[in-house]
Amino acid sequence: MATLLFMSVLLILSFLSLLLILYTLIQSKIRPARKVLNPGPTSYPIIGCLISFYKNRRRLLDWYTDMLSVSASQTIIISRFGARRTIVTANPQNVEYILKTNFTNFPKGKPFTEILGDFLGNGIFNVDGDLWYAQRKLVIHHFNAKSLKDSYVENILKEEVEKKLLPVLESAAAECKILDLQDLLRRLAFDLVCKVSLGYDPCCLEYNSLDKTHPIVEAFDLASEMCARRNAAPLSATWKFKRFLDLGSEKRLREAIKIIHLFINEIIRGRIGLINQSREEKSDLLSKMVLDGEEDGIMRDTMISFIMAGRDTTSSAMTWLFYLLSCHPDVENEVVKEIKVFEDEDLLKYESLKELRWLKACICESMRLFPPVAWDSKHAVDNDFLPDGTRVQAGDRVTYFPYGMGRMKDLWGEDRFEFKPGRWISEMEDGRIKALKNVGPYKFPVFQAGPRACLGKEMAFVQMKYVVASILKRFVIRPVTANRPVFVPLLTAHMARGFKVLVQRR
Ligand code: HEM
User: Which positions are tagged coiled coil (predicted)?
Assistant: First the structure.
């Protein structure tokens, strides 16, 4: 009996040693000829870094940031059982290489587009190659300076802010009512992006309906959450199997997508009818697509991508900005001083918004610390090397990481964790800011960069300046608790449990 036990232990030990030798051999074969710069977290044969990944699963952003800040070239490699090899980089040269220099080797890739495919279809956000390029060409004209000035600022923004947002804040101030500013800004951004893309106002931001959520917003929220769950599933086969059986989260996703499709298809049909009757020129993207004779399916998918791109990004950026300003009243006073130089009616003109340089510095500084898109991944088509020598294998997930980049000492200095908008100023004249620094898009890729850079960047800045200036000119916003808010990075980042504030007239 004892001999049998001894033999079994010996057999198991021999098997384990064999595995270890095999693993070491394979590692030494696939290891790059160049120096391994960034081994990442402690890894073990077969399971990889599964143990430390699990331990840090609720603080992945800071875990990655900690590892990146001690890595020689700000790049780490994460290999764990059940997930593809992932390279995470906060190195601007690597980011430039992925997003521009060798753009075609780093598309979003099937693992990404598969997860969002049921929801986003073939919309610009979820396709690569020719399909992506054709849509980019189609919608890029919608974002020129003229349409931003004529239609967006002087028409859409003015109406939404003056007729809806400010009255809500006015009533809350008069009634000393606590508001969730994040929710309010999300409602505003949703109404705005629907007006720009669909030419339709779902009126989510109405004082009387603040305690309710519009069914279409609910459907968008649910679809995004369920897709984020797909992304977090340990194995993609799990959600695919659930989809096949139409169970749980997959059933809810299917139902949410059905609501979204019905809603948008109805608007498309209505618009086609209207335009056929009176070929009147309208400024929204859908009307332009109808006039161009685009297919219904393409129009629907483009609309969904646009709404997703524009709805939560600006509201997230502004929520964190209001939080940071509330912690730095001196910085806020400077913003108010800058705004007050303008008369009321001049302040909100397109040209005056360009003069709000201190406010722009505050917005950039806030997004450096709390980027609305905290990380973004591509998938390598072929084997490759990043400029720092990191070896890429075909199929690897390659993630550029704006959240970590905003916290790298090499990029932003010793005071990188502090909110200091002054770091964005390059030139002063007579006590006024003459110019802001031209920080490269690969050092600060919050809007991505290269051929696939965010199309709404200018629109987003115009919107954020307009909204923040309109609010700060009239109101003081103060959080109701002194607790540090929690940054949650889903598809778009947000503040956990909202941002509860009291509004006072300034
Ligand atoms: C602070 C606000 C914003 C931030 C930080 C932001 C950031 C980004 C990022 C990181 C991407 C790349 C996503 C990816 O490829 O996976 C992107 C793409 C895009 N964004 Fe934005 N965005 C903002 C606002 C907007 C707005 C307001 C719109 C339009 C209404 C918009 C329209 C788009 C579009 C159409 C794309 C796809 C571009 C392409 O794939 O060619 N964005 N944005």
Answer: none
